[in-house]
């Protein structure tokens, strides 16, 4: 039985969005088109963990945890964060108190990404991240293919809960459906039909039209664990200049 969890992605901050580097600044139309299909998930041989998101609104941190699992398994030594390693950022960034349950209010996704860069999660610190144009599907595909995954911030409709419970892909419905929360998920695969994400410890498919309706923010994560022993990503991408530039970005307060 699939166990649905909680939501916990707060709305993005406009002032933060305006200062973030865009991937478009570093890519051009000269880049070869991404392949029609890409799936990084098979490298993760164990279960996709649901550390706390069944009871806490820590989906932003779990997005980071699942990105860590996938990127490290594909390019370097596998990293499987422990439950305390996922809970620690939720306490540090949002003030959650595990003793009383206070401040279980969720996080702004960029606040979590900034913490990941400053302090680290499960012993891993990212070099930075760039904002993607959520309306540019080719850019989303490029980011998944070249950087190993994308952190998505989505609005969750009631219909998606129902489809998850039935083990179905998230698809747009012709009837009105209310928004029940803000959610964060990692997109780790794509096909011609849509994306593959991880949510509540499960693989979940969603169609491109669903994505276009409900995705609100997207980020490519730049992490040294995505480099192999030759200093390249699994698709041969050199990140030196991009990492250097992103390392000079100020972190948000």
Query: What share of residues are in beta strands?
Result: 15-25%
Could you tell me the number of beta strands? 9
Please, what is the CATH homologous superfamily? Cysteine proteinases
N-to-C SSE string, H for helix and E for strand:
EHEHHEHEHEHEEEHEH
CATH architecture: Alpha-Beta Complex
The biggest sheet amounts to: 7 strands, antiparallel
Summed up, what is this model?
This protein is α+β, with helices and mostly antiparallel strands. It has 8 helices and 9 strands.
Tell me what you see in this structure:
With 253 residues, the chain is an alpha+beta fold. The chain is built from eight helices and nine strands. Strands 2, 4, 5, 6, 7, 8 and 9 form a seven-stranded antiparallel beta sheet that branches. The chain has a two-stranded parallel sheet with strand order 1-3.
Tell me the layout of helices and strands.
Elements: E1 9-10, H1 14-19, E2 38-39, H2 59-75, H3 83-94, E3 107-108, H4 109-118, E4 128-131, H5 137-147, E5 150-157, H6 158-165, E6 179-190, E7 194-199, E8 202-207, H7 208-214, E9 215-222, H8 240-246
Parallel strand pairs: 1-3
Antiparallel strand pairs: 2-6, 4-9, 5-6, 5-9, 6-7, 7-8
What distinguishing features does this structure have?
Cathepsin B, Chain A, 253 residues, alpha+beta, two-stranded parallel ribbon, disordered C terminus
């Amino acid at each position: 039985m699939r166990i649905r969890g909680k939501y916990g992605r707060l709305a993005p901050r406009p002032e933060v969005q305006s200062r973030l580097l865009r991937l478009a600044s570093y890519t051009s139309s000269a880049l070869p088109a991404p392949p029609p299909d890409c799936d990084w998930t098979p490298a993760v041989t164990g279960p996709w963990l649901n550390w706390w998101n069944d009871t806490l609104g820590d989906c932003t941190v779990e997005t980071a945890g699942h990105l860590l699992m996938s990127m490290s398994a594909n390019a370097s030594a596998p990293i499987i964060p422990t439950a305390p390693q996922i809970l620690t950022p939720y306490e540090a960034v949002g003030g959650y108190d595990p003793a009383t349950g206070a401040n279980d209010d969720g996080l702004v996704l960029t606040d979590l990404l900034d913490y990941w860069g400053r302090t680290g999660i499960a012993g891993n610190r990212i070099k930075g991240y760039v904002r993607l144009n959520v309306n540019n599907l080719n850019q989303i595909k490029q980011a998944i293919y070249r950087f190993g995954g994308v952190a998505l911030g989505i609005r969750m409709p009631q219909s998606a809960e129902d489809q998850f419970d039935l083990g179905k892909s998230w698809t747009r419905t012709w009837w009105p459906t209310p928004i029940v929360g803000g959610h964060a998920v990692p997109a780790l695969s794509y096909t011609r039909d849509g994306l593959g994400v991880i949510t509540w410890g499960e693989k979940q498919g969603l169609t491109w039209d669903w994505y276009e309706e409900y995705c609100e923010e997207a980020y490519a994560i730049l992490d040294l664990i995505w480099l192999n022993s030759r200093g390249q990503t699994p698709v041969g991408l050199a990140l030196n200049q991009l990492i250097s530039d992103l390392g000079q970005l100020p972190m948000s307060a």
